């Protein structure tokens, strides 16, 4: 039960972090770095 | 039991490698790099975004670039998306991306299949001579493209590699180091700092990273034989700098004193060792974290063997912008040397890079215990025959703990367990 709770928390936190990052425009920053040598 | 010709995770690795490196238009259109929308998307594994065939963004490269940005708001230095991606994947499948998608994992798995050692009998010498021939051809090819001397290439690249391979051919597959010494790691870092202080920052960082890895596995006491003369010579050469009341050779003596005291304290008195698999956390924190933050440069990428294989060497050979070959210098040669060492290590040890170096694997490993997808062991039917360990690409014993941090979730043990004691659960 405890493990499943940790999994749910991790999944929610991960999704929230990724969504926040996308909202803050981090994808375009990553694109800037990844498109140059 | 039906013997499978190809493991399911191998199919995943091949598909992953092709999908992550599928930009063949690079060669058709003579473009240096793909720069479309997919380059905004971080992939879940180590795969250099500087490679001409690369489609997505390497999460570790992006991580270092983001935390190293200067003059931006604090929240722009937080790799939100990368952390979120690691957390989501880790929560669902633990370290499975290492086993099922990672191209560098595939290269290491394939290299380990090369038969060397006494068990391979006559075939080992055929292998040895074949690799020797391929090596000579590679040196000739590189020499023709980047205008290095063939003799230097043979002497400094081919010969050391063949000497290592000869050792492996005679001794056979090797067991990797079991522990790393904190004293050895500190010696490497301090040696790097001394070079930064007396010579050049970039040389110091690169040397520090390499010596950190080597000395930590070699152990502090044995490292002193290299560190003491090297430290003293470095202190006598380079810029004329003072450190408080110390100058020139005095700095060297101070360095030697600190080095000896560090070893005596941490190895002699405190016996401070960690499992060798924990070394990848040092790479994550010190190289991909601290070094990238303070220098604003992705130091893990600069030395990454996957980057050399997928980006450094292909770009130098191809040189689509007519100027990359002119940039070849000491760092390129160091990268090639690291790649050669990792290639040799992968032939003799199961996935050495994944187990001891990869920072992405280090992050995923944290989630293995809590991930949704996991393995379950039936202790009553398990006979501890060791069949699981023999097929395991990272050489662990799933019957000790099927969900240990080092497991890459390839499930080869599940499919090869004679009494079917291991199963995949959610």
UniProtKB/TrEMBL annotation, chain B:
Cellular component, GO, one term:
plasma membrane
Q: Does the keyword Transferase apply?
A: no
Sorted keywords for this record are: 4Fe-4S, Electron transport, Iron, Iron-sulfur, Membrane, Metal-binding, Transmembrane, Transmembrane helix, Transport
Q: Kindly give the InterPro entries that the UniProt entry links to this protein.
A: 4Fe4S_Fe-S-bd, 4Fe4S_Fe_S_CS, Electron_Trans/Redox
GO MF annotation terms = 4 iron, 4 sulfur cluster binding; metal ion binding
- Database matches in PROSITE patterns: 4FE4S_FER_1, 4FE4S_FER_2
Q: Where are the transmembrane segments?
A: 80-104, 125-144, 150-168, 180-197, 203-219, 247-266, 278-296, 327-347
Protein name, per record:
4Fe-4S binding protein
Does the UniProt entry include the keyword tRNA processing?
no
Q: Report domain 4Fe-4S ferredoxin-type positions.
A: 373-402, 403-426
């Amino acid at each position: 039960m405890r493990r499943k709770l940790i999994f749910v928390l991790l999944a929610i936190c991960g999704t929230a972090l990724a969504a926040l990052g996308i909202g803050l425009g981090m994808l375009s920053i990553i694109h800037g770095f990844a498109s140059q040598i | 039991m039906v013997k499978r010709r190809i493991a399911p995770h191998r199919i995943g690795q091949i598909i992953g490698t092709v999908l992550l490196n599928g930009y063949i238009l690079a060669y058709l259109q003579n473009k240096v790099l793909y720069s479309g929308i997919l380059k905004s998307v971080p992939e879940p594994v180590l795969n250099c975004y500087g490679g001409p065939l690369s489609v997505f963004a390497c999460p570790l490269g992006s991580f270092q670039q983001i935390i190293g940005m200067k003059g931006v708001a604090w929240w722009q230095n937080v790799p939100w998306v990368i952390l979120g991606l690691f957390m989501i994947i880790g929560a669902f499948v633990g370290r499975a991306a290492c086993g099922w998608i990672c191209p560098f994992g595939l290269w290491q798995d394939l290299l380990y299949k090369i038969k060397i050692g006494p068990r391979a009998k006559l075939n080992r010498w055929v292998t040895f001579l074949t690799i020797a021939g391929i090596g000579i051809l590679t040196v000739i090819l590189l020499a023709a493209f980047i205008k290095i001397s063939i003799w230097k290439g043979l002497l400094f690249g081919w010969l050391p590699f063949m000497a290592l391979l000869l050792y492996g051919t005679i001794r056979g597959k090797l067991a990797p180091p079991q522990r790393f010494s904190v004293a050895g790691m500190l010696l490497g870092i301090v040696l790097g700092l001394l070079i930064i202080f007396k010579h050049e920052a970039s040389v110091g960082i690169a040397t520090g990273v390499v010596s950190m890895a080597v000395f930590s596995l070699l152990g502090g006491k044995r490292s002193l034989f290299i560190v003491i003369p090297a430290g003293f010579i470095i202190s006598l050469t380079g810029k004329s700098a003072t450190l408080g009341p110390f100058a020139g050779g005095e700095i060297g003596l101070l360095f030697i004193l600190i080095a000896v005291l560090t070893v005596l304290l941490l190895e002699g008195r405190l016996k401070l060792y960690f499992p060798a698999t924990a070394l990848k956390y040092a790479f994550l924190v010190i190289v991909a974290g601290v070094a990238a933050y303070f220098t604003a440069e992705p130091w893990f990428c600069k030395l990454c063997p996957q980057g050399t294989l997928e980006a450094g060497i292909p770009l130098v050979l191809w040189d689509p912008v007519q100027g990359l070959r002119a940039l070849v210098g000491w760092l390129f040669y160091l990268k090639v040397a690291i790649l050669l060492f990792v290639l040799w290590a992968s032939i003799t040890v199961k996935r050495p890079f994944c187990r001891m170096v990869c920072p992405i694997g280090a992050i995923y490993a944290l989630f293995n215990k809590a991930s949704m997808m996991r393995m379950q062991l039936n202790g009553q039917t398990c006979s501890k025959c060791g069949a699981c360990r023999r097929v395991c690409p990272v050489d662990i014993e799933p019957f000790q703990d099927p969900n240990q941090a080092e497991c890459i979730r390839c499930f080869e043990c599940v499919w090869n367990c004679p009494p079917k004691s291991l199963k995949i659960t959610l």
